[in-house]
Amino acid sequence: MPKVSILMPAYNAGKYISQAIESVLNQTYQDFELIIVDDGSTDNTKNILPGINPKIRYFPIPHSGIVTALNIGLDLAMGDYIARHDADDWSHPERFARQVEFLDSSPPCGVFGTGMLLVDYRGFPTEVLTYPAEPTYNDLMKKCCVAHPTAMMRSEVYKEIGGYDKDFNMGCCEDYDYWFRVLEKFKIFNTDLVLYTKRVHDESNIGRGKRKTIRAFDELARLKSRIRRLR
After folding, report:
1. How many CA atoms lie within 13 A of 16 on its CB side?
2. pTM, 2 dp
3. How far, in Å, CA of 85 to CA of 79, rounded?
4. What's the fold here for domain 4-230?
5. How do residues 121-149 score in pLDDT, each as one tens digit?
């Protein structure tokens, strides 16, 4: 049975992280480790963590940005598969079981994402997002085609292409750049099954106050991909 490493970077996530952790611990698939990289939180994030639990590995670091936190988590991961999870969201109980089953049966697949339900800060549903079943480079040039916190990838992907690009560390869209790099060597698949719920609020990575920043870093990811293809 493959082991899954779940990467959960956290920064001042005390308001929501207990629900995120609970959703991971309550998965039907139980062969996993949950790696929480606390990116210098100044709130009560640490105090909300459950007591001693062998599945949880907690690593506090000085505040360094999302990319640094993710790359530290990748270095620490011991699983055959590596899954992402945000600290203010929750996974549906069968998420990891469905993803492991697909990756086990689909060797060409490097990254497997799922559909995602968006809810507002109160938890009220607002939108369902799904993505192309097998996104191409042209699809990716139009928009990001994998919901980052829903993604599960083979550990070989990280070994082959490395970590996230530090140019995106204090901004956003580090995942968009990563999917371009993945698609150069592996296939990406998505299911339209909604197996993850994302909470959208002003502090979240797709909050309203970040739309201009997102557009700028989206274009940076596209530009870097174009340059790599010209080499």
Report:
1. 24
2. 0.94
3. 15
4. Spore Coat Polysaccharide Biosynthesis Protein SpsA; Chain A (3.90.550)
5. 888 999 999 999 999 999 999 999 999 99
